């Protein structure tokens, strides 16, 4: 197959080695090698995942890498997801520069310990399921949850566990079913083998990890992949062997509900986080957790007008890779493809990604986001209201936003400049004096950069080997029979 003469990124980038010193190899998979790299300007260490373009054999392979980059940016606000810093591309490689995690794989710690106590396992499971919730609430299916794809950020006993590999992750639309066979044999859900699945598969994979954390062995085991698949489809969970007699019924109950073969009856990720075993036997609250999108909409609705305008400026200067996930999410909610989101679409869209919001609360959110009072939310309004906070607070973005308002480059935003900005954004009846007084810490009647940055960073109310672009080779009839197995291609 002829390799396409195109790039992964839609824009040219500087040379990686002009900005980073490349160090020792940290690990490798079938499609990439990860190196230690040090930023020359700061001396800060990062991990650089380098993907050789000679292994990208068709346009789909290029698109897969581009999607992985977008999804990592899309999820980058979550503390349980490794943060992507930037990407570079040359004639030979695509490089993903990411937060460095030095504490090793969850898989290695399981192997070293044999199995974990229930309380230790609960801590790790909470993080793993929070990754599932983050994916679910942003319209993503991970599709390859396994211990090898989680690293600790340090060697400390209380180190933060982070998901690091999104090479098989995909954007999805509520109600649609996927059919391509991807994943890793031990962790694949039965509906993947039936080639009709949705986001529920991530809960199954998390349930398999849960079983391994407590027992040290996978729940469905065989010598061949075909044998594993047969066990996944028909096998029974073993709660009789050691150490299961010493494990609480509450933990076993949670595993059973996560490994329910019927995806419609399987417990949801939100319900897992509310389960008494995860909650450390506290009473689970009745109110559902806000999805990521709803949390961001609430934060936006609590912001003052200047901060909302500044966010719009920042949104306009972000790259396609940084906002691609939100663009996909907008398209998912905009079901009639009109370019705007109606109240009905917002309500149904949020429900589709696992969040049912009270109608009165939704009206308030809609009104807050619909800054031009058109009765709908356009793409720019949606993007502005759902931006990652870490992107909003980056120094270069704050400087660009401040410069937008400081038209005369005086180093201050005056009332006249604010008034002009409000006209530019179509905002009326804005109490400018009150806005300036709220932000103006030295009471000189204007806003300097320090005051502007403080306002922007202030919290608002509301509040082993890695699988990349791999596929599972599987025949359903064969797995249910006794014929020769097919192998999983990582």
Would you mind describing this structure in some detail?
The protein has 490 residues and is of the alpha+beta class. The chain has three domains: 83 residues, Phosphorylase Kinase, domain 1, CATH 3.30.200; 183 residues, Transferase(Phosphotransferase) domain 1 (Transferase(Phosphotransferase), domain 1, Orthogonal Bundle), CATH 1.10.510; 166 residues, Orthogonal Bundle (Recoverin, domain 1), CATH 1.10.238. The protein contains 21 helices and 15 strands. The strands form six sheets. It has a five-stranded antiparallel β-sheet with strand order 1-2-3-5-4. A two-stranded antiparallel ribbon has the order 6-9. A two-stranded antiparallel sheet has the order 7-8. Strand 1 and strand 2 form a beta hairpin. The chain is globular. The relative contact order is 0.12. Belongs to the protein kinase superfamily. CAMK Ser/Thr protein kinase family. CaMK subfamily. Belongs to the protein kinase superfamily. Ser/Thr protein kinase family. CDPK subfamily. This is non-specific serine/threonine protein kinase. GO terms for molecular function: ATP binding; calcium ion binding; protein serine/threonine kinase activity. It catalyses: L-threonyl-[protein] + ATP = O-phospho-L-threonyl-[protein] + ADP + H(+); L-seryl-[protein] + ATP = O-phospho-L-seryl-[protein] + ADP + H(+). Its EC number is 2.7.11.1.
């Amino acid at each position: 197959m002829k390799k396409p003469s195109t790039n992964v990124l839609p824009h040219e980038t500087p040379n990686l080695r002009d900005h980073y010193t490349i160090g020792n190899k940290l690990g490798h998979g079938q499609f990439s090698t990860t190196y230690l790299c040090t930023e020359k300007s700061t001396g800060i260490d990062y991990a650089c995942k380098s993907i050789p373009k000679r292994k990208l054999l068709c346009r789909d392979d290029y698109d897969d890498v581009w999607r992985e980059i977008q999804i990592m940016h899309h999820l980058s606000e979550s503390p349980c997801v490794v943060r992507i810093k930037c990407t570079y591309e040359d004639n030979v490689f695509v490089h993903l520069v990411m937060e460095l995690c030095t504490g090793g794989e969850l898989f290695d710690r399981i192997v070293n310990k044999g199995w974990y106590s229930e309380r230790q396992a609960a801590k790790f499971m909470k993080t793993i399921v929070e990754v599932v919730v983050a994916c679910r609430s942003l319209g993503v299916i991970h599709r390859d949850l396994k211990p090898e794809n989680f690293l600790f950020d340090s060697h400390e006993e209380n180190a933060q566990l982070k998901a690091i590999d999104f090479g098989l992750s995909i954007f999805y639309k509520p109600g649609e079913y996927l059919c391509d066979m991807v994943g890793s044999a031990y962790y694949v859900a039965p509906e993947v083998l039936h080639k009709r699945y949705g986001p529920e598969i991530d809960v199954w994979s998390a349930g398999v990890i849960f079983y391994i954390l407590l027992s040290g062995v996978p729940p469905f085991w065989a010598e061949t992949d075909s044998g594993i698949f047969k066990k996944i489809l028909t096998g029974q969970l073993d709660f009789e062997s050691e150490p299961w007699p010493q494990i609480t019924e509450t933990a076993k109950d949670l595993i059973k509900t996560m490994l329910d073969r019927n995806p419609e009856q399987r417990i949801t990720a939100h319900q897992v986080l509310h389960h008494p075993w995860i909650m450390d036997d506290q009473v689970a609250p009745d109110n559902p957790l806000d999805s990521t999108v709803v949390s961001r909409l609430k934060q936006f609705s609590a912001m003052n007008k200047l901060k909302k305008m500044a966010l719009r400026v920042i949104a306009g200067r972000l790259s396609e890779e940084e906002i691609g996930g939100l663009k996909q999410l907008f398209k998912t909610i905009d079901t009639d493809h009109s370019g705007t989101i109606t109240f009905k679409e917002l309500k149904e869209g949020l429900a589709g990604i696992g969040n049912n919001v009270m109608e009165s609360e939704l009206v308030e959110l809609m009104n807050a986001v619909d800054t031009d009072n058109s009765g709908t939310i356009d793409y720019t309004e949606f993007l502005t209201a759902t931006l990652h906070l870490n992107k909003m607070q980056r120094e270069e973005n704050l400087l660009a936003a401040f410069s937008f308002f400081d038209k005369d480059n005086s180093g201050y935003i005056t009332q006249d400049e604010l008034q002009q900005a409000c006209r530019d954004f179509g905002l009326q009846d804005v109490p400018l004096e009150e806005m300036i007084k709220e932000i103006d810490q030295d009471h000189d009647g204007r806003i300097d950069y320090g005051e502007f940055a403080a306002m922007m960073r202030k919290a608002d109310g509301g509040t082993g080997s890695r699988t990349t672009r791999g596929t599972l080779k599987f025949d359903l009839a064969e797995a249910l029979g006794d014929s020769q197995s097919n192998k999983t291609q990582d």
